User: Fold OsrF from Oceanobacillus oncorhynchi.
Amino acid sequence: MVRKMLTKEDAISAVYGGCILGGGGGGWIADGLEKTDLAFALGNPELITVDELQDNEFVPCVSLVGAPSAKEMYVDSDQLVNTIHRMKMEFDKPIAALMTNENGASTTINGWLQAAATGLPVVDAPSNGRAHPTGSMGSMNLSEVADYQSIQTFAGGKGDKEAAGSITGTLDLTSSAVRSISVQAGGMVGVCRNPVDTQYIKENAAVGAITQAIELGNEFLSVPEGPERIEKAVTYLKGRIIHSGKVNEFQLDKTGGFDVGYVRIDDLELTFWNEYMTAEKNGERKGTFPDLIMTFDVETGKPLVSAEIKEGIKIAVMSVPKENLLLSSTMYNQKLLKTVEPIINKSII
Assistant:
């Protein structure tokens, strides 16, 4: 069993490693670094392995829900902590720890601030080891549990857009409602949702994926800014660069709280639904979600989320087979993956 007192250096590595594992989504590096400062101003959160939990203990998932490109999004520290307190009131069993919903620049360290504020540890088992667009994809296949009732608490926005509360219902209903509320709240809300027991985490979560993000970030940051950082990421993940070049065309539409669009670099086309979904070169598929597809600035090596892409910039595109990632059981659920297809008008299954 391994217990680790997390440091600010761990968090910075987790932000960069998480950004790469975000696959185009999972939030912005600047937001992740800001959350790092806020978290460690409150204290040092602790990371535990899932083996340190008792069989009858419960862990909720903490998440940010919304569109990364939203201009009016606002979620502060008090709102994030409020979702934990509200969950403790709504859920009838003790909360033993917190888990994040996915790896991403802003999402890998989801829960670290709440952990520092409440004294609860963070479990090294995100709901998913890569970023994904929908709440159901971060639900560890609770969508397959008959008559499952989801509990979600949320808070975000400021001024006349501020919203906070809780909702109970089916997983689809609660996830859709929170997504809709995130739009009304300016584009983003913090969420605490769906407490599950230890055995369920072991069977369905991405066990060890926080450590993977930190290790990847350590490798990435071990060399100076530049193309060598991209090589470090590719080597660590056993992936490949499928193309480098100037962005010829970029389209991003905000649809239902998501960023949806495509990127064209010479004869390579990427589609995204927050995260990159497909990569095709001359019609040949080079990567398909949940494979990891990620873009980097060619000159600095900085990982770029889909909402950061602009026409004219030079980028490198990495593809990593899903087998090289630590993933949730949801990433093998064809019903959930099928929902991607009508959004991007591409086959996924």
About this structure: The first strand starts at residue 3 and ends at 5. The first helix runs from residue 8 to 21.
